[in-house]
Amino acid sequence: MRNNLLIILLIFNVYSFGQKKMSAIEMLEELKNNGGAIVEQRIDEFGDTSLHMKIKPVIIYPKRTFKNKRQRRRYNRLVRNVKKVYPYSILIKNLFVETEFVLNNMENNRERKKYLKAKEKELKRKFEGVIRNMTYSQGRILIKLVDRETSHTSYELVKHFKGGVTAFFWQGIARIFKTNLKYEYDPDGTDKWIEEIVSKIENGQL
Q1: Cβ(39)–Cβ(52) under 8 Å?
Q2: Which among 9, 42, 13 is positioned nearest to 28, based on CA atoms?
Q3: Does 57 map to a domain?
Q4: 72-123: per-residue pLDDT in tens?
Q5: Are both 158 and 189 inside the same structural domain?
Q6: What is the extent of the structural domain holding 20?
Q7: How many folded domains does the chain comprise?
Q8: Contacts of 57 (CB under 8 A, 6+ apart)
Q9: 72 Cβ contact list (under 8 Å, min separation 6)
């Protein structure tokens, strides 16, 4: 993984955790019910720990002008595609953070494998149909937005949770569909338009 990041708890109702011993899943539900949040913790080279919460800047974009009708159509198509897949990238980010928390608080590998297997079934039930109906362009955008939201490529996420062999297999499948699980997000270059559209969505401009 790119950054040395750990998942920790920011707890507003601490007393609820001290009353009884809970499983990781029970702790997560208790946390949600009591107004807590899962945030990132970073340990620097001196061993000091600090909390990291991303506060995104608000960027106001001027009305976009186009060189020609073809460029306008291309941009409008990109807007439609990004608006369709962006919510799924947020869901994937939330699932990633939640899964990391649960796994890090489980006591043995058997519990972790059982949890991952159940989570995989849940994901297939909820999202397989939606993702299968996405176009190639939408799939590529989703892969890039996953990297934007989690700071990890889809390939890295699969490898992290399922292992290198599985990641290699799914990368091969992705290649058949003319895409790449290793796509990285480039907001200042090839993905500049996507970044603008996502920012507008987050700002309520779209």
Answers
A1: yes
A2: 9
A3: no
A4: 999 999 999 999 999 988 888 888 888 888 888 887 888 888 888 887 787 7
A5: yes
A6: 5-52
A7: 2
A8: none
A9: 66
